[in-house]
Amino acid sequence: ATPTALLVGTGRGAQLGILIRGPEVLESTRRVDTVLLDKTGTVTTGRMSVLDVRGHADTLRLAAAVEHASEHPIARAVAAAVPDRPAVASFTSHAGHGVSGIVEDRTVWVGRPSFLAAQGLTPLDLPSSLPSSLPGTVVGVGWDGAVRGLITVGDTVKPSSSDAVRRIRALGLRPVLLTGDASPVALAVAHEVGIDAGDVIADVLPAGKLDVVRRLQGEGRVVAMVGDGVNDAAALAQADLGLSMGTGTDAAIEASDLTLVRGDLTAVPDAIRLSRRTLGTIK
Ligand code: ADP
Ligand code: MG
């Protein structure tokens, strides 16, 4: 394509709410055949709320104290559920796993149950501890050597996500859901937006997202990755095309080639179509 065509394409992108790092990005956009979609904050709104709390009476209060210091959508939901929180010291974020901090002289851990187990905390033994009717993410809360409570949080699929997935398919691309969350939640979201169960990659740690991109590239695929979180940044940078949500973190935006200003996934097929048009493969 001529430099003029590329500039026109870039300008048209801006009108569609797609910020393009440089005109050369349109070339890699055109060749993409696989679209990896992060779940939380990308396919879903990322605005979570607390659905259920079980276990020790201090579970929500202590968790909220630690989560108040975190930017994660889960953290915002937990912190918002308790207006009067105790203070936290030595806050630490363990990306893709959870958080920890000292609250009222105890080290409190909040995060994936498997992460808490790896910290040496004894699992909580509740009869029917998983509320099966709630399609939520279960987060463990532990202190003094044991997991003492479980909090279920959930968010909703963005209204535009199903339409975006349908249009991604219509362009001949394969949508894949890639998430650090547990597979029951991932499968429920995939089903809702029309991604095949076989194309769900769940329980992935942040470094694992990068590995998935590399593995697919090793199989000859040209990979677009769409994400919003700090935990997506490495995968966004490795992908042939990295797309960030304008509503996402600075780390994700800086690692990406395209930013979808409105945080709406329908801008993904828009971007692919735009690059095909600009580079003359379709009229
Ligand atoms: P996604 O890939 O869907 O955007 P993340 O990689 O951000 O999800 O998080 C993966 C998992 O790690 C979450 O489902 C949760 O179990 C746990 N986790 C991460 N951050 C936190 C936090 N601040 N509080 C509690 N749990 C967390
Ligand atoms: Mg995310």
TrEMBL record:
Superkingdom as given in the UniProt entry: Bacteria
Cell compartment(s), UniProt: Cell membrane
Family: Belongs to the cation transport ATPase (P-type) (TC 3.A.3) family. Type IB subfamily.
Record's protein name: Heavy metal translocating P-type ATPase
